Amino acid sequence: MTDTVADAPAARAASPVRSYNEWDPLEEVIVGAIDGVAVPPWHPAIEATVPPEAWEFYRRNGGGAFPQEQIEKAREELEGFVEILEGEGVTVRRPDPVDQSRPFGTPDWSSTGGSSHTFPRDIALVAGDRIVEATMGWRSYYFATHPFRTIFKDYFRRGARWVAAPKPELTDASYNPDYAAAKPDGPPDPDDPFPPEASVITEFEPLVDAGDFMRFGRDILVQRSHVTNRFGIEWMRRLLEGEFRVHEVTFVDDHPMHMNATFVPLRPGRVLINPERVRELPEMFAGWDVLVCPEPAIPADQPMYFCSRWIAMNTLMLDQERIFVEAQETELLRLLDKEGFTPIPVPFRTVNTFGGGFHCATLDVRRRGELEDYFTS
């Protein structure tokens, strides 16, 4: 007998997917996997987002493998994290295994392979009982949602809503190879840190990475970035209107990609900020307390393939008190403890090297709590 799709609306009332913010008690989560990871091929979209010191690595190794010892260490860290989550009573789901080194393409382009299925936060947004698959602006991420489809189909059969953003074409029309020439000289202008012409993606079609979104109950923040354009933001806004309010925000960052190393919710009324990128809070956060993230402990000479050292602030709330923090981030652990939180130190430094922290490596599909309005206007 084949599985049948559950009837709504009764099924939706008991949906396995139900998450409105980043801090209610965590009950079920998807955690990524590192096995099968591959180096994505060199492309302007890669150049615009990865650290410049990693460019030569991509040019030499695109389509190949990362160092095996780093993969094994990252696997060990992910499995240790899963063990801790399950020890706290959290249900953990994992993606299907995939060999990301297999080539693929469309009639317009080809790729030597994919990248990874380590960071489910990038590929889907959970808004209430709805899973929204992102489009993804990198060609190497074209099939990034597929390792998670077994889980998404199960959730849908059990009552969740599930929708995918329009599959992008990702032809040359989607990219601006001259983005770097349009970037103003000097530090970012606080009034216009990321002008549209300095983005590597155009407005040709909706492009969205879910990592550029952050949930605050009825209000969801999003930033325009090198992987999320205004076309994509408007698509998401229309999809969610009536249930959620989507607000575009801007930080002092001239190479934005994902918000969770810039502006991190801790609980109602408190946020953790990146001092280099957040000079002042968005107006709607007037009255909220700010914790300024200390300088990351990641050594300056540590290889970082996908992101900056500020990935250290990529934390995950188990509930409004307990928070997962990389075990070597001593100053951040001390700050959170001083501010009344209970930090849970977990080794995750090698996973950081591959481009993510605890928030990136998870997709919290169920938190115990209701939809709240945390803003009066």
TrEMBL record:
Active site: residue positions: 209, 258, 360 (amidino-cysteine intermediate)
Source organism, top-level taxon: Bacteria
Listed GO MF terms: glycine amidinotransferase activity
This protein's record includes keyword Transferase: yes
Keyword list, A-Z: Transferase
Transferase is among the record's keywords: yes
Residue ranges, annotated region (Disordered): 93-116, 173-198
Xref: InterPro entries: AmidinoTrfase
GO biological process, one term: creatine biosynthetic process
Family stated for the protein in its record: Belongs to the amidinotransferase family.
Protein name: Amidinotransferase
